[in-house]
Amino acid sequence: MRVGGITVLLVSCGLTVLELLRRTVGTEGFLVGVALSALPVPLLVAAFWWVGRVHPQPRRNLLFAFGWGSCAATLIAVLTNERVGDWLTSVDPGDSERLTLTVVAPVVEETTKGLAVLLVFAFRRSGVRGVVDGVVIAGLTATGFAFTENILYLGKAFGEDRAEGSEALDGATAATFLMRAVVSPFAHPLFTAMAGLGFALACTGRRRSRRVLAPAGGLLTAMTLHGAWNGASMLGPLGFLLVYVAFMVPVFGLMVWLAVRARGDQLRTVARQLPAYAVTGWMAPAVPSALSSMATRRVAIDLARAAGGEAAVRDAREYQEVATALALLRAGAEHRGAAPDFTVREGELLRRLWRCRAIAQPTLAQAALLTQRPVRVPPGWAARPGWVAHPGRATPGWPATGRPPASTAAASSGPGVPPGGGRPSWPVIPRW
């Protein structure tokens, strides 16, 4: 019911904003704008897909984010910017354009885009684990917003070229496309990623003040960057170039570094947290290390496809996603304290993990042997630091990880579980 209602809302907003744009720029300009605006979208979507690949967001979250940005956020922004701009023109005609560009548009647009992040974090909280999720949701929202907004600018530019008799390749259309799709395709995603980062920091902190200040600070930073970017366009070519090179490029580089580092942190969390489940028999000892490498994961998927076709691939992918979610859940409990529903959520993830183990664990173990240098398991490996949870770092009542079911033949003979349950005993594991 909720999904259907949201879909109807977004589709209605999308049809409305597209019709408004068509009336504004004309049918021909609209079609040209749609075609040119779509060109950078696959690059942007692929970039955010790569960032979030370690722990993929549920598809519904991603579709909602892009749909909100391209439909609802743009409709609200177009109508609000127009109304406020008209009011400013009646009050102060001389400064209305500058104020609209540097104040009104950044505040309105970043607020509407940030609403998507807020809604996902509020109603789909279980799929949000940290910085990467915030950046991905915000980035896809802004990608959708930029797509629809570019239709307006490119359609207007095409109309200007037609009115002046200019060729599109050397007129305003080409200049607008170069500026918005080649020089700065990541502008909107960069701004909104700040808001996503703020919401993510709020979700990963214990202090109540952080839960309020982090989103507010992220949204304010997004508005400031957006206002500075719009203001730079009023400084002339040299002024714009200076702002672009000296300010926007370093900020973009910093955000890229942060996203890549956060992605690496997720893999390191997998390597640190999953051995606790290997110790108790939920997975083979080779699995934690295998899952901490994207290259090994890819090889495991290929092995699963060769062994059992697409059905095996689905199980292998689900296993990888569930195991990663399990590691991030446990890391969050260690960092912020175990939530009241921790045991329930952990148990559900473990049951899903156990159902998918038949093909996933052997292929991961084999992939680890193919891609990582193996070493012999030393005596007492289960007691090595990092292989078990650290109760001292958790809140009182930290739930102990149970053992997998061993009452049936299928369970007791699963990968990593010796006959009768008990501690796994594989001859080799990859080096940590």
From TrEMBL:
MF (Gene Ontology): peptidase activity
This protein's record includes keyword Transmembrane: yes
Domain of life of the source: Bacteria
Compositional bias ranges of the Low complexity kind: 399-415
Region (Disordered): 392-432
Database matches in PANTHER family: PROTEASE PRSW
Protein name: PrsW family intramembrane metalloprotease
UniProt KW Membrane keyword: yes
Pfam families: PrsW-protease
TM region positions: 30-50, 62-79, 130-148, 186-205, 212-229, 241-260
InterPro entries the record matches: PrsW
Keywords for this protein: Membrane, Transmembrane, Transmembrane helix
